[in-house]
Design a protein that fits this description.
five-stranded antiparallel sheet; 413 residues; binds zinc ion; 15 helices; alpha+beta; four-stranded antiparallel sheet; single chain
């Protein structure tokens, strides 16, 4: 049997591609001919669906023909799902950084967004004595793009459109409610319990929305810079409030911050519901971003590792649904209106502005603040970050910390 993909009518540099999901019995072998050398062609067993495909920038306008040939050595069977080809268009692909585009051939067929006017032709030719059968394929919806795409069950490691969630031996079976279970959209009572689990977003959305788009220009140097800034803000807040959050909480309440918050959230991740057997399994999230000077206190949110790294420094209203926000307001005691806003911690800003002499004369002169990395002084990055917080403040908008920093520095000379 052959599946022939014909692509034509493209301009030089257009992203073009082809792809198909297919299943075959063990006696059937297959080859791909034509198109880019870089392509996806999985070799899963007969309990799983395979995927074949690629996408690449057209080197010129000449038509492209790719053929998938399936050969049965003995009597065998083949099933195909959604064969397609043509010009690939998606807003994320248009302005993606070049390094994100290098391995796009690994994202066919799931990222083949074939434009309406750019669709190619697919011709399927079966042997004359072939008969047709139906084979079910399990489709899972993506949390972001909403598309239903094939996944393999029971052999979950044979990944197609979604990556696994819990791969390490000690984490299996995946206990994360929304990752570890597939619910039938037509019959909610029918649930497949998975072993490895699948990500909520398809591989395309994970690559372009979850990992890349939050911060398109993120480099490892910037990650280090972010880490340094976080530590500096934690340090500054501890000074302004007179002690680390843990110490202050213990002093005020006589109990442990982490234990109390963990219990308040029912010993589970607030976002996905994963059980967190001990406080050490949880990640305490500031709820409101540290980048806006909100300290870690009794209003913190309990998250699992993956939800915490997904939320990062985003404001709750940029991350949770309105229903989730309402629930979060109830648990944390933060008024719903406050949770819905992305405003800085005015109290911390007021405390800082009251102690400018200390801030410039002591805090910024500490050893860790005078350190230089990649030509940037840690303290200067802190001033810049604080200026951004001030710019969003209602009460202290007029304050120019950067100018004050420059003024004091030139005075000293
Ligand atoms: Zn998606
Ligand atoms: Zn999991
Ligand atoms: Zn979670």
């Amino acid at each position: 049997m052959t599946v022939t993909f014909s692509i034509a009518g493209h301009a030089k540099g257009d992203l073009i591609g082809y792809g198909v999901w297919f299943w075959r019995t063990a006696a059937v072998t297959y080859t791909l001919q034509g198109g880019s050398d870089k392509r996806t062609l999985t070799e899963y067993g007969d309990a799983s669906w395979n995927k074949a495909g690629s996408m690449w920038p057209a080197p010129d306008t000449s038509p492209v023909e790719v053929t998938l040939t399936l050969t049965a050595k003995a009597k065998g069977a083949v099933a195909l799902y959604a064969p397609m080809c043509g010009r690939v268009q998606h807003k994320y692909l248009d302005d993606a950084r070049p390094e994100l585009m290098r391995n796009m051939y690994q994202f066919a067929p799931e990222a083949l967004f074939i434009s309406e006017d750019g669709a190619g032709e697919v011709v399927i030719e079966a042997a004359e004595d072939a008969s047709s059968t139906d084979l079910p394929v399990i489709l899972k919806s993506c949390n972001r793009c909403g598309r239903f795409l094939p996944v393999n069950v029971p052999v979950e490691r044979d990944q197609l459109s979604f990556s696994n969630h819990c791969v390490a031996d000690h984490r299996r079976p995946c206990k994360h409610a929304t990752f570890g279970r597939l619910r039938n959209v037509e019959d909610a009572k029918e649930v497949l319990q998975l072993d490895y689990g699948y990500q909520l977003e398809c591989r395309f959305c994970k690559k372009f929305e979850v990992n890349a788009a939050h911060n398109p220009q993120r480099t490892s140097a910037q990650m280090k810079e972010d880490g340094a800034r976080r530590r500096a803000f934690e340090l500054l807040l501890a000074e302004l409030y007179g002690g680390t959050p843990q110490l202050r909480y213990r002093h005020e309440k006589g109990t442990e911050l982490a234990d109390d918050v963990w219990k308040r959230f029912g010993c589970a991740c607030f976002n996905c519901g994963a059980k967190l057997p001990t406080p050490r399994d949880m990640h305490l999230d500031h709820t409101r971003p540290l980048a806006l000077l909100w300290p870690l206190d009794g209003t913190a949110t309990v998250l699992c590792g993956s939800c915490n790294s997904e939320k990062r420094d985003r404001a709750p209203s940029d991350f949770y649904t309105p229903a989730k926000l309402a629930a979060l307001a109830k648990i944390t005691g933060i008024p719903p209106d406050d949770l819905a806003k992305t405003h800085p911690n005015e109290e911390a800003l007021a405390l800082l502005l009251r102690r400018l002499d200390w801030f410039f004369g002591e805090f910024l002169l500490r050893e860790e603040m005078t350190k230089e990395r990649d030509g940037k002084i840690a303290g200067e990055l802190v001033v810049k970050a604080l200026q951004k917080v001030l710019a969003r403040s209602g009460q202290h908008k007029g304050m120019n910390l950067q100018a004050e920093y420059d003024r004091r520095r030139t005075q000293k000379r």
